Amino acid sequence: MALSLRARQKDAFGDVAVDQKAKLDIVIPPGKEADSPSFFYWDDNPFITSEPYDELAGAVRAGSATAEIVFEGIIYKDGSTEQLQN
Q1: What is the mean pLDDT of residues 45-60?
Q2: Cβ contacts of residue 46 below 8 Å, gap of 6+?
Q3: Which terminus of the chain is more exposed, N or C, with fewer CB under 10 A?
Q4: Has residue 55 been placed in a domain?
Q5: What is the average pLDDT value for the chain, to the nearest integer?
Q6: 40 close to 60: Cβ distance less than 8 angstroms
Q7: Residue 49 burial (CB < 10 Å; 0-12/13-18/19+)?
């Protein structure tokens, strides 16, 4: 199965610091839950400002960052697809 999703990381004021789309290949047995080892990682480039690291660093250090994950689509093992309305 594959999932497409949108991940929005927000600061303490609820302003979106990072908004990105992602795709995840994962096996979820029918009627079960599954974990994924996937994660987002940002590095600091001190020569470029306003990159995801710069936008999130303060909120993460303060413990006030939040994430909103919205699933947008699913591709099942049999090839059928489903687009989710958000």
Answers
A1: 89
A2: none
A3: C
A4: no
A5: 90
A6: no
A7: exposed
19: containing domain: 1-31+62-86
DSSP state of 7: E
Residue 44 placed within a domain: no
The DSSP secondary structure of 31-69, one letter per residue, reads T--------------TTS-SSHHHHHHHHHHHT--EEEE
- How many CB atoms within 10 Å of residue 17? 20
Tell me what percent of the residues of the chain surpass a pLDDT of 90: 51
The number of distinct structural domains making up the chain is 1
pLDDT of residue 36: 84
pTM value?
0.73
Task: Give the pairing of strands 81-83 and 2-10.
Answer: unpaired
Residue 52 lies in a domain: no
